[in-house]
Amino acid sequence: MKSRLVYMDHGATTPVRKEVFDAMIPFFQEQYGNPSSLHTPGRKVRQAVEEAREKTARALGAGAEDIYFTAGGTESNNIALRGAAKERAKPGHIITSSVEHHAVLDVCQDLEREGHWVTYLPVDQDGLVDPETVKEAITGDTFIISIMAANNEIGTLQPIREIGSVARDCGILFHTDAVQVVGQLPVDVNDLNVDFLSLAAHKFNGPKGIGALYMKKGVKVDPLYRGGSQERKLRPGTENVPGVIGLGRAVELAVSEIPGKQKKLEYLRDRLIEGLIGIGDVVLNGHPQKRLPGNVNVSFKYIEGESVLLSLDMEGIAASSGSACSSGSLEPSHVLSAIGLDHPTAHGSVRFSLGFGNSEEDIDYVLEKAPPIVERLRSMSPTYHAR
Amino acid sequence: MKSRLVYMDHGATTPVRKEVFDAMIPFFQEQYGNPSSLHTPGRKVRQAVEEAREKTARALGAGAEDIYFTAGGTESNNIALRGAAKERAKPGHIITSSVEHHAVLDVCQDLEREGHWVTYLPVDQDGLVDPETVKEAITGDTFIISIMAANNEIGTLQPIREIGSVARDCGILFHTDAVQVVGQLPVDVNDLNVDFLSLAAHKFNGPKGIGALYMKKGVKVDPLYRGGSQERKLRPGTENVPGVIGLGRAVELAVSEIPGKQKKLEYLRDRLIEGLIGIGDVVLNGHPQKRLPGNVNVSFKYIEGESVLLSLDMEGIAASSGSACSSGSLEPSHVLSAIGLDHPTAHGSVRFSLGFGNSEEDIDYVLEKAPPIVERLRSMSPTYHAR
Amino acid sequence: MYNDKVMEHFNNPRNVGEIPDADGVGETGSFKCGDTMKLYIKVKNDRIEDIKFQTFGCGAAIASSSMLTEMVKGKTVEEAAQVTNQDVADELGGLPPMKLHCSNLAADALQNAIADYKDHKIKQQSL
Amino acid sequence: MYNDKVMEHFNNPRNVGEIPDADGVGETGSFKCGDTMKLYIKVKNDRIEDIKFQTFGCGAAIASSSMLTEMVKGKTVEEAAQVTNQDVADELGGLPPMKLHCSNLAADALQNAIADYKDHKIKQQSL
Ligand SMILES: Cc1ncc(COP(=O)(O)O)c(C=O)c1O
Ligand SMILES: Cc1ncc(COP(=O)(O)O)c(C=O)c1O
Hints:
The complex is a heterotetramer, with 2 copies of chain A and 2 copies of chain C. Chain A has helices at about 20-25, 25-30, 40-60, 75-85, 100-115, 130-135, 160-170, 190, 240-255, 260-275, 305-315, 325, 335-340, 345, 360-380, 380-385, and strands at about 5, 65-70, 95, 115-120, 140-145, 175, 195-200, 210-215, 280-285, 295-300, 315-320, 320, 350-355. Chain A is of the alpha/beta class. Chain A has 2 domains: about 5-15 and about 260-385, Alpha-Beta Complex (Aspartate Aminotransferase, domain 1); about 20-255, 3-Layer(aba) Sandwich (Aspartate Aminotransferase, domain 2). A 7-stranded mixed sheet of chain A has the order 2-8-7-6-5-3-4, with helices on both faces. In chain A, helix 8 links the parallel strand 6 (about 175) and strand 7 (about 195-200). In chain A, helix 1 packs antiparallel against helix 9 (about 240-255), helix 3 (about 40-60) packs parallel to helix 9 and helix 10 runs parallel beside helix 15 (about 360-380). Chain A is globular, with a radius of gyration of 21 Å. Chain C has one domain (about 5-125): Alpha-Beta Complex (Sufe protein. Chain: A), CATH 3.90.1010. By secondary structure, chain C is an alpha+beta fold. Chain C has a 3-stranded antiparallel sheet. Chain C is globular, with a radius of gyration of 14 Å. Chain C contains 5 helices and 3 strands, in the order H-E-E-E-H-H-H-H. Helices cover about 50% and strands about 20% of the residues of chain C. Classes of the chains: A alpha/beta, C alpha+beta. Chains in contact: A-B, A-D, B-C. At the A-B interface, helix 1, helix 3, helix 4, helix 5 and helix 9 of A face helix 1, helix 3, helix 4, helix 5 and helix 9 of B. The complex binds pyridoxal-5'-phosphate (PLP) (2 copies). One pyridoxal-5'-phosphate (PLP) binds near residues 101 and 180 of chain A.
């Protein structure tokens, strides 16, 4: 393999930062007590866990008692949505969007099987949900609205604050999957009017296998799992202590650095978009401005995403694709379909998601390697020759 | 605090072993790719995850495709029981015991709320379930039996193989919560006739926040969480990669060392039991022979467990108790009640759970420190003076 | 879990024991958590001259018993009767919420001991 | 995911391109995954003298097209018609299960090209 690695798949996951790993180290072999234990080794660990909870809360403008640690973004989403549904005596109505992550969409589909009914709101060609459509979809039976803060594929930022006001005015619970946003852009749960917010540490240079759910004081859900009384019974089981510590440190660092990082990533992002579009027959997916600082999603016309990915990979560039062939499913991404891309264009999509370690040289490198790859693949393509 | 620490709470959790932590290290900052990613950094990690799955399978005599990684013992239990219930079209009957961990008992209680009905089998004074009572409890509606392999409080080992045969003969699913047994005693899923088996890495010197569920080929459950296709959709969400690697290494090591470790722990255990009983008015809880190699659970009559724990803690000895006051609930442990202990005796229970690092000197130290503690507390006790 | 003051009282409880010729004895127990407490008072000129306790209880129970005896020793019986469970917990610098009920035993036992003392006095007077 | 042989064919695909004066052209597409494939054959003395392909497809599609063209070049039309999708996958040393359908395009396109060639021949003979 090439020794050079230009990692541009931060939307999938990120490396743990040195400061974060250093904070975690003592909790494997030294401070290993169970935070539920009464003895000193346990109590010390309890204290560290609660400090991490406070850090997490502070990063979101929340109270520590509103933060529940989970095993990741998927679990946070499931607890919020399914828990809210389970809390109800009878089936009800859910509003979500057609571009949510599967960890929301598939929960909704499962809840439909159980008798609930769901409105999957459409989005415009940039991937935006219109808050007016949320308002219109509300019925007397609507009990929860779930709209993601930013889309993981095309990076589009949703008008969460506006949707939050609609939900609040109607007295309906509002959940936002902020897995892609926390640590990238400022988030304040009160400002956003959310009742639930999901996050995952591994998206902002924290460890995998740990996440959190913000749940507003007074909101009640029926827990999915039963067992011990950890996380006030919302998420029982011995705490993933090193994970919790890592999450606390990672969120604290990431949020404190947003101002500088956001500007840097936006600059690199826009340079990369411009350079890729310069190849010709390349279109940007997602909103040109309202998008995650590190997200670049383009469709290379006439060629297929997996082939592009494999070719990039051979040059040491790690990216991802919404093509069916790369996902293991046979359909192209539901997000690309929802913004109206035709099949071939959707199949040619590639996502470069920038993060912490990326530099100007990385952009140069990609812009040097991508054109010949595209050219080579196009030279093989029947649709390119027939265009 | 005392600098000496004699950790005898391995039943609650254990330190991560050096070999295990060393195996995990590369997966935080270097091999951080998402195993679902198509690129080289992702594919390398996928391979490591699958190797860990094979190690876990080998340790249980299972096939790799029957191992599903979870976030811990609680999640494994919940997925098995609730998943099996969710898979059914209509409510049915569950058989379990009255001494299960809350991560089984409380799931059963929640399923009762949803219309299922549950038989909580009694145990004898040593904590044993009689396989005959399992057979008698079976009805045409029984769809799952869940009996733990060893009790976490009193250490009693259940006749899992026999109960497994009963279940198999009747064509009923059988789950065993083996969280306390894996890594301590040999386990072979085929020999035990189980369809599901739960384990948690942090009980055998692996990391917290990771566990596994063995689910026999052909068995179907309806997943609780929805999202990505990780763990064949049984447990979606980005894999806790360092956790998985740690689990694989820990289970491999622990299982390979059972022969020597078991003998050593049994020897230390029996010395400790003997010494504590020698104090006088101290009774052993749980089965004298059929018990976990490292489990010592005694009741100090006339005094209360939390006070004993706090006093031991001040001498640097970490133990745990089934007393109400130490658990946060107001009831004494349901396990101690189930074996017929009266309230005061249950309140005086203390568990010393031995593990990897414990030595003969640790036993000597406890046997030196415990008697004066017991004497001091008894001197304050009205029931001791009135005996 | 417990603060230093609580641990100090747990470690060095004041006034542990019994008073064989007590003027009042109060007993109380929590059916819930199983703790039991016995309190003895010696009264002179309507003042609590001596007080001792015995307890089968957890850290909170032992510390709050010890604290209570210190708080009321030397007080008049009427003053002592005013001391509440909350006062004891406050004097200890706070207790974990789930431990408050354990600490309630102490002041309850004192109430019983005072009642017992008054009972005796009335009986003696009516002799 | 893909083995070395697959990646080698992906990287250096044999027989890419078109044959302007082909004797048979086969096209096929997967409605499911969106891949498209076009195959050209030049036949002489009933043997496939030249073969070229174009594809809009993933790694598996490109590699299996390349492999197929190598496998059938020089074979008689009848021999070539016997080559199955499975043969191509086997010759590549295996493909990930979820990628098998992508590789199916190659042999399917060949069948179509052969049918097209035969069609032409019949038409020419019947002229
Ligand atoms: C028997 C048993 N089952 C389940 C669990 C729960 O495991 P975890 O805390 O890892 O979720 C434990 C440990 O706490 C246990 O001892
Ligand atoms: C928007 C969004 N939601 C949820 C998830 C799921 O998070 P995790 O894989 O940590 O469970 C992800 C990441 O995969 C995501 O991007």
